[in-house]
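Extended Data, panel c. Modelled sequence:
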Amino acid sequence: MLKPVLICAALALLAGCATPLTDAAQKVQIVTAAQKEKCQTIKLVTFNQRLGPDKPGNAMKSALNEAAAAGANAFYVVSTSSDWAEGASVVGEALRCGG
């Protein structure tokens, strides 16, 4: 009887580690190299996700959150990597596009 409770508790803890997108980050669009040329670079964003489930997804969400916090409305992905032992990383440019 205790084993199912422990499994549920472990799953709940793992689910709690997921990175949510902020409201502002939900509005940040990922752009192509051609689209990026019409934008102003705000900053370079690098994020590494070492722990938790969905390391690549959480790394991207964290990078988008950071870009949005810097005032970006677009994001250009320079590189991504994912490794079981090392985790996942995202490098990109936070951009301001349009008027």
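The beta strands are 29-30, 39-49, 74-83, 87-97. This feature is highlighted in the accompanying rendering.
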